[in-house]
Design brief:
Keywords: GTP-binding, Nucleotide-binding, Repeat, Ribosome biogenesis
Organism: Cellulomonas biazotea
GO molecular function: GTP binding; ribosome binding
Strand order of the largest sheet: 2-3-1-4-5-6
Strand content: 15-25%
Shape: globular
Function: GTPase that plays an essential role in the late steps of ribosome biogenesis.
Oligomer: single chain
Radius of gyration: 24 Å
Bound molecules: guanosine-5'-diphosphate
Number of helices: 15
Protein name: GTPase Der
Largest sheet: 6 strands, mixed
Amino acid sequence: DDDLALIDGLDEDELGGPEATAWPVLAVVGRPNVGKSTLVNRILGRREAVVEDMPGVTRDRVSYPAEWAGRRFTLVDTGGWEVDVAGIEARVAQQAEVAIALADAVLFVVDATVGATDTDEQVVRLLRRAGKPVVLCANKVDGPAGEADAAALWALGLGEPFPVSALHGRGTGDLLEAAVDALPEVSAHAKPVPDGPRRVALVGRPNVGKSSLLNKVLGTERVVVDATAGTTRDPVDELVLLKGVPWVFVDTAGIRRRVHQTSGPDFYASLRTQAAIEKAEVAVVLVDASAPLTEQDTRVISQVVDAGRALVIAYNKWDLMDEDRRPYLEREIDKDLVQVQWAPRVNISARTGWHTDRLVPALERSLESWDTRISTGRLNAFLGELVAAHPHPLRGGKQPRILFATQASTRPPRFVIFTTGFLDPGYRRYIERRLRETFGFEGSPISISVRVRE
Ligand code: GDP
Ligand code: GDP
């Protein structure tokens, strides 16, 4: 890429964070108390603390950038939720299922001092069915005396058990070597097949109408298509022809299966949403038009934006919309959705099918923006005019100068601006606003990073 030649030495992470690159995903799965958190902390070392200090990292965050022997990957910690003892099996199975959807490889942790339990056996069945690479961690082998316990786990049929003491670090090197060996170079799901069908995720809090919409869309337009040449897809995804154009709806199995829904924000629902978003290029976030917007709704929207995916917001259940609610709805859009004013909104009814035909054009608009590349020449002409019309405010008598800018990547568009000093946040927002006014980018997040040249 010609533009990139201009910015040699620029670390990929500076262009948009770890999500910018499709690092392969390793998920840690296992029953409570087997030592998952201990292991995760050991793998991350001090990096975890760094991550938690980063602004914008929500408390729901469960994936962390990790590195072992020079191989970078995303570590997903699926164990961060309290389980009530009664529901343990269901919860662990749910966790494994999500990890399978999310991961390129699974690190399955068993307590070697306890041995394989029925719950472990159940997870093994799920893992085996999914066919993803599994590395078996026989944990709590604190010394040579425990090696026999580890060897007993061959019986699980998952291959070699790695005897490990997450607590003391014993054996973790061999374990991680096997784990990174099991990972592909780049994540299979985060990376869409080039020129393959566009990948869309239907997301939103429980009961907003995801499965109703899926059924409506599939029911009216479904055409059975054989795996198109050159496309790889998960069995949980569905390939659908919409007006003759193929689309992949990702993670539909998660939508169809009505998992027991607990009230309140659900850790696993949130993980599954993240998995679907990461597999997709564009996400439709469904919200319930007939009820007030909730924090859960805006959280899902943020997940899409943070992942750098194109976005469409669908106001569903429009048939239940009471005219009295109109002013409140407008106010919510102005207030709670102000950060995503650029996202196309469609009002639909998944139940009646009303206006569901407007989804595809909205998806296409968002994806077009997501793919947009502005040439370096045009971008710098734009910046020149912008600076001439509205220079950066003086700061202590000095003024950072903008040297030049380039678009470092598409999907989503990421810009790097080279300057002689840091830009005020207000000025960065101004640049973003003018970029959108000038070039559109409807439906796509864009990012701007600033690089100070000495
Ligand atoms: P999680 O629920 O699977 O995340 O398990 P934790 O990481 O919280 O560990 C549960 C308990 O097992 C804690 O008391 C840990 O200190 C202990 N533990 C974890 N790993 C080891 C280990 O390798 N050896 C020993 N002896 N204890 C461990
Ligand atoms: P999911 O949990 O997001 O998959 O939501 P569902 O598709 O299961 O829908 C939850 C409930 O809302 C069901 O009772 C649906 O029939 C109902 N529902 C979904 N879409 C609409 C709609 O557009 N209008 C009305 N009135 N009800 C809807």
